[in-house]
Hints:
The complex is a heterotrimer.
Chain A: H1 16-19, H2 22-35, H3 42-59, H4 63-87, E1 93-97, E2 100-103, H5 104-130, H6 133-144, H7 154-184, H8 194-200, H9 202-225, H10 244-263
Antiparallel strand pairs in A: 1-2
Helix pairs in contact in A: 2-5, 2-6, 2-10, 3-5, 3-10, 4-5, 6-7, 7-9
Chain B: E1 3-12, E2 20-30, E3 35-39, H1 46-52, E4 61-66, E5 69-72, H2 80-86, E6 87-90, H3 103-113, H4 118-131, H5 148-160, E7 166-170, H6 178-194, E8 198-202, H7 206-212, E9 215-220, E10 223-228, H8 230-235, H9 237-242, H10 249-261, H11 272-284
Parallel strand pairs in B: 3-8, 3-9, 6-7, 7-8
Antiparallel strand pairs in B: 1-2, 1-4, 4-5, 9-10
Chain C: H1 2-7, E1 10-19, E2 29-37, E3 41-45, H2 52-59, E4 67-72, E5 75-76, H3 82-88, E6 89-92, H4 105-115, H5 120-133, H6 149-161, E7 167-171, H7 179-196, E8 199-204, H8 207-211, E9 215-220, E10 223-228, H9 230-234, H10 238-242, H11 249-259, H12 271-284
Parallel strand pairs in C: 3-8, 3-9, 6-7, 7-8
Antiparallel strand pairs in C: 1-2, 1-4, 4-5, 9-10
Amino acid sequence: MMEKMIIGRYVPAESLIHRMDPRSKLIIIFLFVCIIFLANNMLTYVLIGIYTFLMLGLSRIPFRFLYAGLKPVLWLVLFTLLLQVFFTKDGSLLYELGPIKIYEEGVRQGIFISMRFFFLILMTSLLTLTTTPIEITDGLETLLNPLKKVRFPVHEMALMMSISLRFIPTLMQETDKIMKAQIARGVEFSSGPVKERIKAVIPLLIPLFVSSFKRAEELAIAMEARGYRGGEGRTKYRLLRWKLADTMQLLILAILTILLILLRS
Amino acid sequence: MDISLQNIEYRYQAKTPFERLAIKDVSIDIPTGTYMALIGHTGSGKSTVLQHLNALLLPTEGTVVIGNHEVKAKQKNKNLRQIRQKVGIVFQFPEHQLFEETVEKDIIFGPMNFGVSEAAAKERARLALKQVGLAEEILEKSPFDLSGGQMRRVAIAGVLAMEPECLVLDEPTAGLDPRGRKEIMDMFYSLHKERNLSTILVTHSMEDAARYADQIVIMQEGHVVKQGTPVEIFSSVSELVDMGLDVPEVVRFQRSLEEKLGIKLGATYLSIEELSSAVAELLRGAPV
Amino acid sequence: MRGEVFMRESIVSLKNVSFQYENQGRNALQNVSFDIFDGEWLAIVGHNGSGKSTMAKLLNGLQFPQQGEIMVCGIRLNEESIWEIRKKLGMVFQNPDNQFVGTTVQDDVAFGLENHGTPRDDMILRVEDSLKKVKMDHFLNQEPHHLSGGQKQRVAIAGVLALRPSIIILDEATSMLDPKGRGEVLETVRALKDEKSLTVISITHDLEEAAKADRIIVMNQGEVYREGTPEDIFSMDDELVQLGLDIPFSIKMSNAFRQKGIDLSKHYLSEEELVNELWTYRSKI
């Protein structure tokens, strides 16, 4: 189940979107989330749809892969649609069967809201699918840099994020190992009454905490030994490069925004 | 307790795009009382095999027979707990599994999960602690206040207290100093003899394999490539070297001595004592 | 023979160093004094808890001794000088995972350089160069969980090298590795030592590893128990076993031959020397 989910996963490929600066991608996603609320009629939604699929196409992520990965989310979209259709009581009555009444406005709202939801999911997945977590961290760090003036710990936050990312796979392996060791000692994680199962988590969690603290301590020592003493005076190895494509992308988004403003009703 | 792996195969994340074949067509017989060493590089599939021995992994093909339990691929397998009760696993760095407030509670955790009464489990804890060479005083201590070596021993005691009929050891002495290593390995060996256990040792140490095992299985790329007694296995040095594996020091020494002196000793010797006797005899009676 | 050793230039020196961890009754190090010489490979051996790892922590200022003085590259180690000293003295720790900071190989090597404010252009060259030296330059973008323990340790060595240190400390850096990884790491360090005339301090309980050092210091209960060439140290025989250590194979083998009445010239012989000796012995009969 988890293996098939694509939300939050990075898929390496050579594409225009992959090569973009993470900063521009972050800005675009942020703006996209805002301007999607400008759409309020069929035409504007279609425009956003065209834009979204254009971006997907440029990313060269196989469609089959996207479909398989997003299937679970599609159910959620469908659920949103049905919720709107059945529970909005506005506009003219379209259909009636016993207690079920479907109104025009309900269908309209349902389609729009679920489309909005759908496009948002597509665009945000596109960000994580085409940008490595460390690039996202770097992008965020640079974008948030001005906040340093108000003493916001931008560097520390970015370092924390990148270290967490680095240790996720390590901790997953560790969890698997401890789980197996405890199963071998007679713990049942996946069957039995709920109360027992909750209790079964303790022999897993405590060793995990203990080892994570130990790791954190050793990592801190190793970092110090390698000369780490805060963000002051540090240089950066990773360099973000703003390219022509990034400017172009922002321009395209600006045009889309203007069109949306002009065409919305 | 007899254990037998019959043509087992295991695929990780089967039926997903990330599927990976870990072992294929592995057949190993481990009759009661056997001390078997499982050797191979990291990634050769030994730890996958190991996890089949107490049904932590279920084969995607083939059958695993453990005592009178049978685990078959593609079948609903029940009573896995009964298997786990009989097969104790000491994982690599077993101290990572400690979690209780006191050493005693941690040791009795396993036995009590398998339905042993508290009083009986405490009795077993005492015994197990003695076996691993720790004093009873530490029963009331927190396992996290102990030294690394002591923690290792407590974790091992936790497995021994389950009184398994088969012991699976995955690099049980990794990271210990030479004295600790020898004490732990000797302890497992005497337990093996005393209780007529079946013992499976996964190790990188050819010395340990030569010293303790009576059967050696070599794995490579998910297959069993060689199986035999230590003397059989270590007689063909070049084959092992080709596989990128080590040879026990004694054997290596015997070969270079044979080469230098231009002789061939009658047998392959696995201990310093045997080899030195054989060579001494040869030298004394050697014609010029 | 000792005179020769002292002729060489001392790069690290400890004078009457004592150290005690908080909440512990006994000193972890007790009045320890010795010198480490420029360009040598020094092995510090001892069983777990003998004080050898505490020594590593003191040498680059992760802990400070309560008594005594430590000099590294002519600088007295104290709170102010630690950053300078950490550039000259790189450490590789025991657990390959818990010292890998970067999300990829190249990021990890760059980490130390970033900390020291190295300009980016220089950084790129140094990252590439040091990864080449440890033969990990084909893994630039690899993530740590796809690397073996030995590979991770080599990356850690590259991270140290990038800072162009004079001294490298291996703090049980091979004890969690399989034999292949152990071989890789030691071979890498040996090649680097020869090429860059580094001083290597390896803290270990693996006597086979120590056998390859120029000099060995045996620690026991926080004190320097013995100091000498591998030959000196290995002639201690059973004394080593009592200290929780082991005896190298060739010594055990020689001892067995002596018991069987075969006279051997020296006490410590490497395996090769022993084979030669037996050959000579036979031709004399």
